[in-house]
Amino acid sequence: MQNFDFHNPTKVLFGEGVISRLPEVLPDGPILLLSGGGSIKSNGVYDQVMNTLIGRVVFEVSGVRPNPTFEKCMEAVEIIRKEKIGFILAVGGGSVVDSAKFISFAALYEGNAEDILRRQDTLVKKAVPFGAVLTLPATGSEMNCYFVISQGEEKLSGGNPLLYPQFSILDPKVTATLDKRQIGNGVVDAFVHVMEQYLTYPSDAPLQDRFAESILLTLIEEGPKSFRNPQDYKSRANYMWCATMALSGVVGSGVPHDWSTHAIGHELTALYGLDHAQTLAIVFPAMMWVMKDEKNAKINQYAERVWKIADHQDPFQGAFRKTVDFFETLGLPTKLSAYGIKEDVALKVISRFEKRGFQPMGEKGLVTLDKIREVLRVASQ
Amino acid sequence: MQNFDFHNPTKVLFGEGVISRLPEVLPDGPILLLSGGGSIKSNGVYDQVMNTLIGRVVFEVSGVRPNPTFEKCMEAVEIIRKEKIGFILAVGGGSVVDSAKFISFAALYEGNAEDILRRQDTLVKKAVPFGAVLTLPATGSEMNCYFVISQGEEKLSGGNPLLYPQFSILDPKVTATLDKRQIGNGVVDAFVHVMEQYLTYPSDAPLQDRFAESILLTLIEEGPKSFRNPQDYKSRANYMWCATMALSGVVGSGVPHDWSTHAIGHELTALYGLDHAQTLAIVFPAMMWVMKDEKNAKINQYAERVWKIADHQDPFQGAFRKTVDFFETLGLPTKLSAYGIKEDVALKVISRFEKRGFQPMGEKGLVTLDKIREVLRVASQ
Question: For residue A87, what are the β-bridge partners?
Fold first, then answer.
């Protein structure tokens, strides 16, 4: 096991009806209510939240979109500064929570807020506190300190220990109005989050491995149920808790990570507007294929423990096929062609990496530009 | 899944050499260094800690014993009040950390400190902040808000969200000087902590179940290695992280609990001075035996997933035998007679429960006085 720090101070309220407990965790003073494209108005979450805020000063910024933008965040920053708002309440999915994090930093930063996106976030020493009412289980942003914000054609990620939500309110009931695409995306996103912390090389961390396998097995069991039946509260609750735990630190502490699938996926979203989870469904299996020798030991473990591939079968082939089938069953094709994207994608992606000054990625720095080219070739076939 | 709150703000620094990072997490001002029976002086931990405290005002209280007492805690409370100390640094095992929690509460409580032990802890609204340098993995106290303190012949437990350690420093290397009894006890303690949150009834919480099984499987794998070889850093690290995770909330959130083995075990310690883990090794298998019908579904799951009992074998008999063997391999006999205790123990224990006004225990309130009598009869045979 590697040395590690583990610190996750977010308070989670979980279960049916917990939105009504907002007054327990919300501090006094004016708040900014940040939300997305309007689904919270049709699914009743907005009313549930506003009922707990009667008599309070609430400013609202809505319209945060998937792949949330720097410009939208800066709208909220202006209001926070002007109105001297001391707390942000993010009501929505991962995009809204990610935006709250960036806003929280940017509002108190005296320099150019773009610096924060250019990984100068160590310059920022304070943040506006914030909390979340989660409506879409997927990114895990509700219980970690990371964000991804888009600016122009770039998806830029950041993170800082100041950016844990003070609280996150998770009522699985509110997921009943999500459509199949959102659920399929959410399950695949959570699954790949775990894989990026698991499918590396053995590092004498059997508990973290088993925690990872626990989430994978539960997503495999509960994900399709959640996908098929919006009214299956039990399954939605389990999927929701899996997605939160996936990026909370319990899987990733003390072990090597490999975020190269995410890095390549971000490029596909920026170039072609694919959903984040669609890009993961495309890139992850191809990455597994290309890096199968380097990841051999963990692929065998994954095949045996997660997919129960029998001894006489080839573990890689078995695990690869099962992974692809799982993603496709959830409505996410795993080939670029299914999204109408042709093979010249590799040229474009490589050129974007080169422009920024590329550093090899992956748990051992073995994901070179050649490997990325190969990954995108496999994903095109 | 039941509704639940999850909030664990303790910051963990984990790995070889992390004691040297104490200055990163320790606030300014005078501190109270609380420790146990002196092992930290012989194993070098005291020197490692003091090297980080050069130039600081440090008061010391040592001599906290296993089953730490109210009276010892009050010694520390007096010093904290007199010297206006603002931070407690607990250096030791679970007894020292538990004491720090009680002291932390009692020092700022204006009433009679005994009230806190009599479960009047809701009266207390503030606590002296504290942190821990852990030397013995077992109780999980380093990452939760619970404590057990002895007064006279009573072991009294409490807990409060104010009582999470600000930080806990876990260097597996410092466990190399522990003796076999301490390691055997620690592994069994952590194992039974998980079982009390797992072996109840199915509650549609597959992730929590798998997290529990992850810790059990890892303790079964790593516990005996840690027991046999003090120099096996890798195994000690895994055992240490298992013990911390066991009572951190990841296993017990949203599921029923059964703390009746602990409750009966506390009586055996109070009456006969047995080590806490010895009492668990005696009571837990007997409880499993007596409650086998009520716990049937989870016993079958435990047999299959944790002990891999084959389909043609009796799951209860298989899991029971494996559990007993596991405890005994770690040097903990599972029968009262092995500790020289005769069957009249049931009379004494029942009478103590009756005197306090007994409420049936267990996940469904089915552990009555009759069941306790039966448990102690089984444990005597």
Answer: A31
Q: Is the domain of B247 the same as that of B369?
A: yes
> CB of A93 within 8 A of CB of A244?
no
Of B10, B253, B298, the closest CA to residue A240 belongs to B253
Q: How far apart are CA B7 and CA A160, in angstroms?
A: 19
Residue that is last in its domain, among A174, A204, A239: A174
Q: Which two tokens stand for residue A270?
A: 């920026």
- Report the CATH number that the domain containing residue B33 is assigned in CATH: 3.40.50.1970
Helix (H, G, I), strand (E, B) or coil at B343: coil
The length of chain B in residues reads: 381
Q: Rounded to 5 degrees, what are φ and ψ at A59?
A: -100, 150
Residue A354 lies in a domain: yes
Helices B315-329 and B296-305 sit at what angle, rounded to 10 degrees? Answer: 60
Which residues from chain B sit within 8 angstroms of residue A218, using beta carbons? Answer: 206-207, 210
Residue in B271, B286, B256, B275 with CA at minimum distance from that of residue B361: B256
> Which residues on neighbouring strands pair with residue B368, listed in sequence order?
none
Among B117, B143, B174, which residue terminates a domain? Answer: B174
Q: Which residues of B touch A12 (CB under 8 A)?
A: 4-7
State pLDDT tens for residues A78-90. 999 999 999 999 9
Cβ separation of B234 and A204 shorter than 8 Å?
yes
DSSP-derived 3-state class of residue A342 = coil
In this structure, the answer to whether residues B67 and B108 fall within a common structural domain is yes
Helix (H) or strand (E) holding B270: helix B260-272
Residue B6 lies in a domain: no
Q: Which domain holds residue A96?
A: 11-174
Q: Domain count of chain A?
A: 2
Q: What is the pLDDT of residues B90-148, one digit of tens each?
A: 999 999 999 999 999 999 998 899 888 887 667 788 999 999 999 999 999 999 999 99
Residues on chain A touching B239 (C-beta within 8 angstroms):
none
Q: Is the pTM of this model over 0.95?
A: yes
For residues A188 and A321, state if they share a domain: yes
ipTM: 0.97
Distances (CA, A) of B4 to A20, A169, A305, B229: 14, 11, 29, 40
The residues near A51 (Cβ < 8 Å, ≥ 6 apart) are: A20
Going by C-alpha positions, the residue among B255, B253, B251, B260 that lies closest to residue B365 is B260
Q: How many CB pairs under 8 A join A and B?
A: 116
